[in-house]
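Q: What residues go here?
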């Protein structure tokens, strides 16, 4: 099996070393290099990683600028943004540009390894504590958004069901279990949904689901 190639981009050498030890401990993952933000574009072109773990806040060249450059490459890798803040104001910007994930630097080692695998397979990954921040940042202000709702009108009934569960942050397996479908069928539905919505990844689709009012609130009414 060809290992998943990972590049770590962070301005702190100790952070790069620590992440490298965690990622490299899994036999199916290979850390092909690490660097600061200013070297990222060159390293990606040279090393051709499948996944880039990218610090969002760096002094030489910030993560958002690096992400823009990487997304402009002919065959961009999947990029997960790393931050120490679950309320980072750059979360929304990074996702709109095309970041496939957003992870806190204190993410548990097993979850970090799992995230890399998901990203390499074409999926998206958000640390659980980041998810609420991301969604609320997009839908702040109340009721359903007319523009988002119009994007969902071309979806079938089953695709709307899948999209609503995507908006809750469920995995393919969890959606399959909830809707009594096969995981392959769910994956096909998600591919169709992304195409119809013009979404770069499932995170962006989840945002549309919330903005369109497809996701039921988990808040309990006052007694």
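A:
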């Amino acid at each position: 099996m060809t290992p998943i190639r990972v590049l770590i981009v962070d301005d702190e050498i100790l952070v790069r070393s620590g992440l490298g030890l965690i990622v490299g401990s899994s036999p199916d993952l290979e850390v092909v290099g690490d660097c600061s933000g200013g070297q990222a574009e060159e390293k990606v072109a040279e090393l051709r990683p499948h996944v880039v773990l990218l610090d969002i806040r760096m002094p030489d060249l910030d993560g958002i600028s690096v992400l823009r450059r990487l997304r402009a490459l002919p065959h961009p890798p999947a990029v997960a943004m790393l931050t120490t803040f679950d309320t980072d104001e750059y979360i929304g910007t990074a996702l709109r540009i095309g970041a496939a994930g957003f992870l806190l630097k204190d993410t548990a080692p097993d979850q970090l390894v799992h995230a890399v695998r998901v990203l390499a397979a074409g999926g998206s990954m958000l640390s659980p504590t980041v998810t609420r921040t991301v969604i609320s940042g997009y839908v702040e202000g109340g009721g359903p958004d007319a523009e988002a709702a119009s994007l969902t009108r071309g979806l079938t009934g089953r695709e709307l069901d899948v999209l609503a569960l995507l908006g809750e942050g469920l995995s393919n397996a969890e959606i399959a279990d909830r809707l009594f479908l096969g995981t392959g069928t769910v994956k096909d539905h998600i591919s169709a949904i992304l195409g119809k919505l013009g979404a770069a990844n499932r995170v962006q689709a989840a945002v549309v689901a919330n903005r369109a009012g497809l996701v039921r609130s988990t808040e309990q009414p006052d007694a």
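A: Context that may help when evaluating the design: The radius of gyration is 18 Å. The chain has two domains: 4-136, 144-211.
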